[in-house]
Amino acid sequence: MHIPIILIISYGLVELEKLSTVGLIFSLVLGVGGIIPFLVHKLFVKRRGRFDLLISNATIYLNVLFGIFLVFLSISYFA
Predict the structure, then answer these.
(1) DSSP assignment of 43-74, as one string?
(2) How far is it, in rounded angstroms, from Cα 57 to Cα 62?
(3) Which domain holds residue 33?
(4) Are 17 and 23 in contact (CB under 8 A)?
(5) Cα 40 to Cα 21: distance, rounded to the nearest angstrom
(6) 74: which of 11, 23, 48, 55 is 20 to 30 A away, CA to CA?
(7) 38 or 78: whose pLDDT is higher?
(8) For the purposes of burial, counting CB atoms within 10 Å of the CB of 19, is it exposed (0-12), middle (13-18) or buried (19 or more)?
């Protein structure tokens, strides 16, 4: 399952390099995709003892950080 996802992301990267509309859509979707795990695991579905490990928190917070960064860069680059 990961190989097709990596191929789709690579295609989006190529389109982003071309500054195409498809590249913008891919970058926005992937940026929002980085924000969603934070929203789900830290805000909407709070369960004691779940996602409290250092590695889980690091992954979730880095995911949201880079997701917001990617959305910001995409919007500012194409604006």
Answers:
(1) II---TTSS-SHHHHHHHHHHHHHHHHHHHHH
(2) 8
(3) 2-78
(4) yes
(5) 29
(6) 55
(7) 38
(8) exposed
What domain count does the chain have? Answer: 1
68 pLDDT band (50/70/90 cuts)? very high
pTM comes to: 0.74
List, as one string, the DSSP characters of 2-57: HHHHHHHHHHHHHHHHTT-HHHHHHHHHHHHHHHHHHIIIIII---TTSS-SHHHH
